Amino acid sequence: MANTDTGKMIRPHLANIQTYKSIDPPELLAQQAGIPESQIVKLNGNENPYGPSPKAIEAVAGAPLHIYPDPQQRKMRQSLSEYTGLRAEHLIAGAGSDELIDLLFRLFIEPGDRILDFDPTFAMYAFCARVCGGELVMLERDEVFEIDMDAVRESIDDRTKIVFVSSPNNPTGNLLPDSQVRELLDTGLIVVVDEAYFEFCGHTVAELVPEYSNLVVLRTMSKWAGLAGLRVGYGIMAPDIVSHIMDIKSPYNVNIAAEVALLASLEDALALQANVDKIVAERTRLQATLEAMPGITPWPSEGNFILCQMPDAAEAERVYNDLASSGVFVRNFASERLKDSFRVAVGTIEETDAFVAALRECVR
Ligand SMILES: Cc1ncc(COP(=O)(O)O)c(C=O)c1O
Question: Where do you find CATH 3.40.640.10 in the chain?
Answer without folding.
Answer: 54-267
